[in-house]
Amino acid sequence: MRITGTGHASMFIETAAGSILCDPWVNPAYFASWFPFPDNSQLDWDTLGQADYLYVSHLHRDHFDEENLTKHISKDTTVLLPEYPTSELESELRALGFHKFIKTVSEEIVGLPGGVKVMIQALTSPTDGPIGDSSLWVEDADGTRLLNQNDARPTDMSVFLQHGKIHAHLLQFSGAIWFPMVYELPDNAKRAFGKQKRERGFDRSLRYIDDVKGDWVFPIAGPPCFLDDALYQFNDVFGDEGNIFPDQMSYVEWLEEQGHDNNIVLLPGSVAEVFADGSASVEHPVDDLREWFANKKQHLDEYKERMQPRIAAEKAAWSHPEIDVLETLRERIEPLMESAEHIATGIGGPVRFDLTAPDSDEVVESIVFDFLERKIHPDDGGKVRYRFRTERRLIEHLLHIREVDWVNSLFLSCRFTAARIGQYNEYVYAFFKCLSEERLQYAEGWYAEQRPDDEDITMQGWQVQRRCPHLKADLSVFGKIEDGVLTCQMHGWKWNLKSGKCMTSVGHDIRSARAEDA
Q1: What is the DSSP string of 304-361?
Q2: In 3D, which of 391, 340, 331, 329 has the Cα closest to residue 362?
Q3: DSSP H or E segment with residue 118
Q4: Contact predicate 375/327, CB 8 Å
Q5: Which residues form the Rieske domain (predicted)?
Q6: Taking the CA atoms of the chain, what radius of gyration do you get in angstroms?
Q7: How far is the C-alpha of 492 from the C-alpha of 32, rounded, in Å?
Q8: DSSP string of 185-212?
Q9: Burial 295-306 (b: 16+ CB within 10 A, else e)
Q10: Residue 506: its pLDDT value, please?
Q11: 375 close to 410: Cβ distance less than 8 angstroms
Q12: Torsions phi, psi of 295, nearest 5?
């Protein structure tokens, strides 16, 4: 099986059934904040776009690149479609002109010509990507198997392993979030939280690697890089151990320290061949891979210079002063707040947006989303649970394009700051990614169906419920106990085992007791 690196989570897989192009992201995403690193814009996307099959793992804009899909990917390619609870991904692709689909069933094998098999596992909780994330398993005719996990976080890897040895395991290692950089915290606290998140991401990926035991590990799906002057400090080139966006070589060097040296880095244009006997070869478009990464800042600065006209053009399109932000929010969002019984209760209070002038900290309008009263109104000076500060023109643009997912646009852009009272509250972000009736009703139904897990396990003298209250990860696999605190290494959530209280978020307590008392 041949794997050509095409940047970030994108790859071009060649099999006996033909080629599969995965997640072809090239253009800036999230208000021109994220760019693929390294730069992949010089690849021959017209040729890559003639692939026999297209796999878009989910709708996050660093995987679903509408511009690249429109301009360069053949509409006659056959789409391998994950089984998601909403039809959005299929509808978006059909709107771009794609018309051939293999609608997979999650975790069921599909046969392709030439003896090739594929399987897609779809994750479907409200917090999985934009209402869904997925992984692709491929078995070539000669028995070579690839698992493209990209940035999905399965709780059970056995579905992939029961069909035989994995020879190529491709997975995320770098951060893909806005925490802690945007939070209004002291610098030392921000660094400490960032260090924890970086280490947690590495540890989680290592757990997957140890579970899969693939012959070769390919770090993919990161990092993004930030080429706007206002965001450049988020790049990992300043020696900050709290930076959550380490690059591929930083991760490989960490893996080597853990005793894992079966790693292959793919630059855009790198070509790896993986064989069923466990061997592999790789050719890169550069002479010395480690030296190339050692010059990362130079590459970033040159990339930044090339992209300045593109960033300026994007910014010029954001302002829509004709939009009355408050009245438009009331018209479109208040009906959703009325329907959001579980989510609004979970938020449990008001959330404020302070809107500023362009490229300024001057607040020109403050708007409160009151989830108790289910109303949107001008700020009246009352206390709020969450506070966001962002440019008014960004909200104008979201309203102008009728964006239904502010997580997959504003929040991932990192073009905001945030403050909160108390712990992280997942319901806040769940609501702002569900700004359509279809998404909201699915999320409400998912939360309504959650029930206490009756199965217990014993760990280090504690009896606890087997499943994580957050996203049902198996705590016998992902749980770790230190000093009476249980950490689920899937997402880093923590519980005080003596009280059962969640230390990470509101409303996710755990059933726990000393084993001798149970």
Answers
A1: HHHHHHHHHHHHHT---TTS-HHHHHHHHHHHHHHH-HHHHHHH-SEEEEEEE-TTS-
A2: 391
A3: strand 116-123
A4: no
A5: 464-518
A6: 23
A7: 29
A8: --HHHHHHHHHHHHHHHHHHHHHHHHHH
A9: ebeebbeebbee
A10: 81
A11: no
A12: -100, 30
Does position 412 have pLDDT exceeding 90, yes or no? yes
The count of C-alpha atoms lying within 13 angstroms of the C-alpha of 508, restricted to the half-sphere facing its C-beta, is 22
In sequence order, the β-bridge partners of residue 2 are 14, 273
The pLDDT of residue 42 is 97
The full length of the chain comes to 518
Question: The tokens of 89 are what?
Answer: 């991904």
Summarize the confidence of residues 213-241 as an average pLDDT: 97
Instruction: Spell out the residues 6+ positions from residue 433 whose beta carbon is closer than 8 angstroms to its own.
Output: 126, 130, 131, 405, 406, 407, 408, 439
Closest listed residue to residue 347, CA positions, set 327, 380, 373: 373
Beta-ladder partners of 485: 482, 496
Q: Taking the complete model, does pTM exceed 0.85, yes or no?
A: yes
Question: What pLDDT score does 478 carry?
Answer: 83
Query: Could you tell me the two tokens for 471?
Result: 């996203």
Question: Computed from CA positions of residues 457, 460, 464, 467, in that sequence, does the dihedral angle turn out positive or negative?
Answer: negative
Q: Which residue has the tokens 């050692």?
A: 294
Whole-angstrom distance, CA of residue 196 vs CA of residue 202: 10
Angle formed at CA 87 by CA 82 and CA 89, multiple of 5 degrees: 60
DSSP run (H or E) holding 281: strand 280-283
Whether residue 451 is predicted with pLDDT greater than 70 in this model: the reply is: no
Name, in order, each residue with C-beta under 8 angstroms of 2's C-beta and a sequence gap of 6 or more: 13, 14, 271, 272, 273
Alpha carbon distance 139, 123 (integer Å): 21
